[in-house]
Amino acid sequence: MASPLADSLRPTNIDEVAGQHHLLDSGKVLRRIIESGDIPNLIFYGPSGVGKTTVANIIADKAGKKLYHLNATVCSTQDIKDIISSLDSLECSGGVLLYLDEIQYFNKKQQQILLSYIENGDITLIASTTENPFFYVYNAILSRSTVFEFKTLDKNDIGTLLDRGLSLVSKDEDKKYSFENGVRDKIAVSAGGDVRRALNMLELCLLSVRCDDNSIITDEIAEQILENNSVRYDREGDEHYDLLSAYQKSMRGSDPDAAVYYLARILAAGDLPSACRRLMVCACEDVGLAHPQIIPIVKAAIDAAMYVGLPEARIPLADAVILVATSPKSNSGEMAIDAAMYDVEHGIGGDIPRALQNKHFDGEDALVKGQHYLYPHNYKNHWVKQQYLPDNIKNKKYYTFGDNKNEQKFKEYNEKIKNNE
User: Fold this and answer.
1) From CA 281, how far away is CA 338, in angstroms rounded?
2) Which helix or strand (DSSP H or E) is residue 125 part of?
3) Are 204 and 6 in contact (CB under 8 A)?
């Protein structure tokens, strides 16, 4: 075929758009807006390959306005000024609709140039982004736009598109292509909700079938194609952080199965540093004092992983991830330092007690002379009652013993030595 399958199957009306039922089904808000013909400023947010550009093109076709299409990754400030200069021309008398793809790549100045023209209605903006717009889009533009989140497609929606693609190719080539049992669903799942990826993988499968002068996409062919084309991972996008978040939360939630699954996805994308960093953080933050020996154990596993590299790194990391997931949990250390940091950052505290200062002679203005530091090792149980915090927070408690076996043992020990002073 002359054009990619994804372009040949691109919908021309809303009813042909796959997925996005929460936005485009009958009665849903975005569908009502499109059908009304009165298009406000819109921002479409979601991963690639889920229909943002397709829906924007359908809206533009129905808007009755002069359409300009810019991609923020390659356009310049001059491109924006050229559009603005055309506003008074006859061809733009019905207004201008600007479709701006990847708006997150526009800097603040570029977005500000658009702002006044969006505000007075000269330009209607439809912007798309793979990033969270509330982090990347200028607030003034956000406040004048309606944001819609596009979601990854499920297996059934992707499968329907694969059937349509196979049917289209069969018709064009006058040859009946088909899937071996289970192959269609395998491709649909491996696409990770991305329509473009699914159809590209289908095209690769068809190329392989044609080379064999065959008409059936077998499981063997699909496996070969999927092996190198099924990992979806954008190290700079929201999906990257969602995956790392799921990885860490699964360890924190004591689910070793989910934890190793997300580890596998991270490693399949070759992101060994992120896998190691989050693992170390989780060992310290979520296991912590419930099993303090875990910190050097995890560090050793990370050192081994970084030393041997992928693919062997998966083995020590899997051991460590399962250990963290199945260990007792305590965040008492994190809570203690966070509470102390809060007081420090808000100026709560005071002078270090004289007994703890690193000086041994007092000035003439000192009311009480002498350091009077009590050396704990000179006392029973190596402990003596003494003030360590500044005067105005001398009774502050930052650390509370966790309810795990390890911390309770330390609590018992501390109470014992302090009650036998």
Assistant:
1) 15
2) strand 123-129
3) no
CB 251 within 8 A of CB 327: no
Q: Which of 264, 269, 295 is nearest to 282 (CA)?
A: 295
Residue 282 and residue 287: Cα distance in Å, rounded? 7
pLDDT value for 366: 56
Q: How many CB atoms lie within 10 A of CB 373?
A: 13
Task: Look up residue 164 and give its two tokens.
Answer: 């349509």
State which H helix or E strand residue 263 sits in.
helix 256-268
Roughly how many angstroms between the first and final C-alpha of the chain, as a whole number? 88
State how far the Cα of 12 lies from the Cα of 409, in Å rounded to an integer.
69
Cβ distance 42 to 133 under 8 Å?
no
Angle (CA) 177 180 181, round 5°: 135
**Among 194, 137, 134, CA closest to 162:** 194
Q: Is the dihedral of CA 242, 248, 254, 256 positive or negative?
A: positive
Angle in degrees, 0-180, between the axes of helices 108-119 and 77-85, rounded to the nearest 10: 20
Going by C-alpha positions, the residue among 310, 272, 186 that lies closest to residue 263 is 272
At 351-366, the pLDDT tens digits run 888 888 876 665 555 5
Mean pLDDT of 376-380: 89
Residues contacting 196, CB < 8 A, separation 6+: 6, 48, 49
pLDDT for 421 equals 53
Residue 288: DSSP 8-state: G
* Alpha carbon separation from 216 to 181, 184, 219, 243 (Å, rounded): 10, 11, 9, 35
CB atoms within 10 A of CB 228: 8
Contact status, residue 148 vs residue 33, Cβ threshold 8 Å: no
Q: Rounded to two decimals, what is the model's pTM? A: 0.55
- Look up residue 208 and give its two tokens: 């392989």
Q: Which of 111, 130, 112 has its CA nearest to residue 48?
A: 130
Q: Which residue has the tokens 């919908």?
A: 11
Neighbours of 321 (CB within 10 A): 27
Taking CA atoms, 84 is separated from 98, 142, 417, in Å, by 11, 20, 78
